[in-house]
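ingest -> validate -> predict -> emit
validate: passed (alphabet ok, no gaps, 148 aa)
predict: started
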Amino acid sequence: MKEEMPKVGLGVVLINKEGKVLIGKRTGSHAQKYSIPGGRLKFGETFEHGAIREIKEETSLDIKNPKVIGVTNNLETYKSERLHYISAILLVTEYTGELKIMEPDKCKEWLWVDPKNLPEPHFDASRLGIKCYLNGTCYEGIKEKTES
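emit:
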């Protein structure tokens, strides 16, 4: 039997001038959960180029200078949906264009929200990525009980 391996995702913490983060209400994958924009990394693609591509595809915005700030191990999604992703989280504070819903089959609305007061239910990679941003840490794991 072939061993399955986690896939690589991207999440973009896009911050506006008021310090709010862009959050979408999902309708496709991770249905009915809120999440930062993002998606899958394509073969041969850098994290930065993947973030630029995903933001353009999902929002029509052009982002500048995306910076990798963290990584998440999306185990809540694995436990609930049997999909295991490791996500690179990128921070963006520079962008141009008009925010639009470009993929209505995947996202029904975009909201600018206080990163310290996220809407629920929230996708684990998004919540953990925003936690990395707020805490200045590169990894925020899900705390699991360990045996002593």
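The radius of gyration is 15 Å.
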